[in-house]
């Protein structure tokens, strides 16, 4: 099982960003995709998850309204969209699946003017 994420992003405050997570090596619809981030000097923070089988989502309270998870079953790719970016969103964003047994390599998102 492999999860390959898109490259680093630099955004201005107020902008939006979309990070992708392309999966392979298993049946995409069999497992949830979780999204987690880690800000500089901080621990891992769960953002929520998507069920690729039916598109059902769950978001951690602090991200509701600013984050959207999607999953494209034609390309076995999951996405996270984050809008209204602020400096506190600067972090490495990770996707994970298989009950967190398998992780992407992480995507650095930097929000700075």
Topology, element by element:
Layout: E1 2-5, E2 9-11, E3 17-24, E4 33-38, E5 44-51, E6 56-59, E7 67-72, E8 77-82, E9 91-97, E10 102-103, E11 107-111
Parallel strand pairs: 2-11
Antiparallel strand pairs: 1-3, 3-8, 4-5, 4-9, 5-6, 7-8, 9-10, 9-11
The backbone outline, from C-alpha atoms, is globular
| Class by SSE composition | mainly beta
Largest beta-sheet details? 7 strands, mixed
Strand content: over 45%
Distance between the termini: 37 Å
Number of helices: 0
Mean pLDDT: 97
Describe what you observe in this structure:
It is globular and about 40 Å long. It contains no helices and eleven strands. Strand 9 and strand 10 (102-103) form a beta hairpin. 0% of the residues lie in helices and 52% in strands. The protein has strands at 2-5, 9-11, 17-24, 33-38, 44-51, 56-59, 67-72, 77-82, 91-97, 102-103, 107-111. The strands form two sheets. Strands 2, 4, 5, 6, 9, 10 and 11 form a seven-stranded mixed beta sheet that branches. A four-stranded antiparallel beta sheet has the order 1-3-8-7, with no helix packed on it. It starts with a strand and ends with a strand. The protein is mainly beta and 113 residues long. The model has no long low-confidence stretch (mean pLDDT 97).
């Amino acid at each position: 099982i492999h999860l390959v994420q898109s490259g680093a992003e630099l955004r201005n405050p107020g902008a939006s960003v979309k990070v992708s997570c392309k999966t392979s090596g298993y049946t995409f619809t069999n497992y949830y995709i979780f999204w987690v981030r880690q800000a500089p000097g901080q621990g891992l923070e769960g953002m929520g998850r998507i069920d690729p089988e039916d598109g059902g989502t769950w978001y951690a309270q602090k991200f509701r309204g600013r984050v959207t998870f999607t999953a494209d079953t034609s390309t076995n790719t999951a996405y996270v969209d984050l809008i209204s970016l602020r400096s506190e969103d600067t972090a490495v964003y990770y996707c994970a699946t298989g009950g967190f047994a398998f992780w992407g390599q992480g995507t650095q998102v930097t929000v700075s003017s």
